[in-house]
Amino acid sequence: MHVLIAPDSFKESLDAEQTARAIARGVRAASADAEVTLCPLGDGGEGTLAAILAASGAEARSLTVQDALGRPHSARWGWIATRRTAIVELAEASGLQQLTSDERDATRTSTHGVGELIAAALDAGAEKLMLTLGGSATNDGGSGMMQALGARFIDRHGETLSPGGAALAGLEHIDLSGIDPRLATLEVEAAVDVNNPLCGANGASAVFGPQKGATPPQVKALDAALARLAEVVAASDMSDHRDTPGAGAAGGMGFAALAFLGARLRPGIELVMAQVGFEAALASADLVITGEGRLDGQSLGGKTPIGVSRSAARAGVPCVVLAGKLDDGWQAVFDEGVSAAFALADGPMTLEQALEGAERLLAERSESIMRLWQAAQSSSRRG
User: Fold this and answer.
1) Cα-based distances in Å from 268 to 1, 17, 48, 357
2) Which of 47, 58, 206, 311: disulfide with 78, CB 3.0–4.6 Å?
3) NCBIfam families, alphabetically (predicted)?
């Protein structure tokens, strides 16, 4: 019996590796002789870099950069010298997890630190960049990143805009004359975990702004500001990617990657699975267990459990999802190769209790899944 354990992180509780180990404890409690392979994953958000570093042997480097509010912050990035490839995770520099709930303000948070990490990668001699977009505290359309790389975002008075998404409402011109020339030959793949466009009812501001601290009036203003960014980009003879699926990832960072870096957008989970050798591990698996903090209708846009379940379905391997919460529209996952899905909570509990008890709950649910699996296998053999 070979069980492949391939979860994402449970945000604000356990990283992907801790999650995988907790699941493995439950599996082994039910079946001590089960062969277990741990394959922690990420889909572009927080923890993606850690998963790649653990599986690929990439070198972890660190740099003090600005966090989303401009404060000094130590951020990691990955370096694969043999391939001249850098891995930059947005959440390391401008992640939502670094801010308290009171500090979240999508109108002024910036991606400047991401640009600083990219500059460090260029200094190291990077020819390729894997940029993972997810878990951001920002809604600035990548303007902070590009400012760190030499671009100027200018208002009608000729002044440089202040940091943050709200300032883009006053954008008049983008001056790229000072941009780092090494970007012209940098091959960029951007890993996204959503397929939202830049603007509109399904855009970056409307869908993700509230979790970054934006009030309803601020969501409307931020959406208009991103639309202004797209208008100025289009008027500057650059391609208009505002409606491209994934442009709204990470507060418009998908748009910036397309427009300014010439990036190719790919589902983050696909990129990560390729980096960590997921398909090879899947080839010998009898059962896959995956999971993340929340499973809902939006998970189909590129979240880890769905990327895993689709691959498992193609290989004919059953796939079970464990989630902190099953939310609106989660039943749609059954059409994507998911065999069964379970929420962790074993009774009424607060969010704080669920986060604190996630490790125990994962182990207990995994043990129950394995006992059910063994019972089903035993019944099948008798039949």
Assistant:
1) 29, 17, 9, 28
2) 58
3) glycerate kinase
- 77 φ/ψ angles, rounded to the nearest 5 degrees: -145, 165
Q: Which amino acid is at 203?
A: G
- Does 171 have pLDDT greater than 80? yes
Task: Provide the 3-class DSSP secondary structure of residue 1.
Answer: coil
pTM equals: 0.84
* Tokens 């990036």 belong to residue: 263
Q: Find how far residue 261's CA is from the centre of its chain.
A: 19
Q: Which of 67, 84, 76 is nearest to 48 (CA)?
A: 76
pLDDT digits (tens, 9 = 90+) for 133-153: 988 999 999 999 999 999 999
Taken in order of first residue, the domains within the chain and their CATH numbers are 2-39+277-382 (3.40.50.10350), 48-269 (3.90.1510.10)
